Amino acid sequence: MSVTAEEDTVRLLTPLRERRFALYLVGQLLSQLGDGIYLVTLPFVMLNQGGGPANLGVVLACYGLSRLVFLPVGGTLADRLGARPVMLAADALRAVVVLGFVVLAANSHIPLWAMITVAVPLGGLGGIFMPASFAVLPQIVRADSLAAGNSLIQLMQSTSRIAGPALGGTLVGALKSGVGLLIDAITFLVSSLTLMAIRPTGKAVETTPRPADDGSELKTWRSVLRYAAGTPLVRMNLLTTLVFNLAAVGLIEVALPIFAQDSLGRGAPGFGVMMTGLGVGSVIGALLGPSLLRRRRRGLIALCLGIAQGLALAGIAMGSSLVLATAALFVGASLQATVNVFYMTMLQRAVPARALGRVMSLMATCAGLAHPVSALLAGTVLGTVDPEVVIVVAGLGVSAAFSVGFFSRPYRNL
Length: 414
Known about the structure:
The protein is mainly alpha-helical. About 80% of the residues lie in helices and about 0% in strands.
């Protein structure tokens, strides 16, 4: 291993030496694993008790809508009360709600109204939690460890997205579904305890003061929206977040399974192989993210990587080989994770602490709004066109969104 690689590894692991961050990472890893277990457990709880797919769809829709509605609330509370207390309260309350779900699951039949009364607060608390979790990092790591911290969090999220559902499937297969729900509740409880044990630094990463960003002007949502619209970094990140999710959700969740089935003839196993490539790519990209922040002309490089990411996604449809499709997805996921670490760190450094929670809630709202629209649009279009067309258009859309950044000098010169 070269000296440079060793130095990069040391820098990446630096945040783990800080007790606050280590506690945070462990707690969130368990919480993310719990989310993966819940994702697999919920459908089987309902289907095994006669709920049927229609009721499952209603419950999932209520959960998703509630989470979307409460994202701005979470951003506001994070800015007013502090990100860590908001996360702590949300996780503790989610543990209580899921425990209520465990009690319901012990009955032979769960009425739809009871499932909705669980799904709505659980989704709402998730919406409150999310912006705070994006805004808390500058309070628990030093400024020079911010990029490495984001990289480790991205790495943790990528790993848990693979391990959580796999663990949930094992639990549902070997034990009762209620056991998976109980474990999910325990992970939320442990997460809240780790957050309680964290003692924040008391101040966020220092930012370059701007007359328009400070003072009372960022106390209201109107002023934050005006700030977001007038700041190239925030404005472009909102655009790319919206476009990426509009493209990626329909591509991955709708077009790729059909592509694996019809075009490649590999069915579910082929789709699983491609998803593995995506997960591994996300891990590699998370590890590479901090190195981008140390490069000259890093803003320009990030834009080029964003364009290349879209081209890689479009390249999934080139040819009829599972190996090539998986390789293209691996490259696209690697570039996406690298760019995500870069821009998340830049936002946490640049956005004033008093508005960071609300800005992050805007980012999460863009992703949340794009999810159902993308899935519905892809599902509708795939009735008349081949999945290759959807994949190529989605990938080129991502490249086009990043291309817009070349016309903004501040964004280009980050």
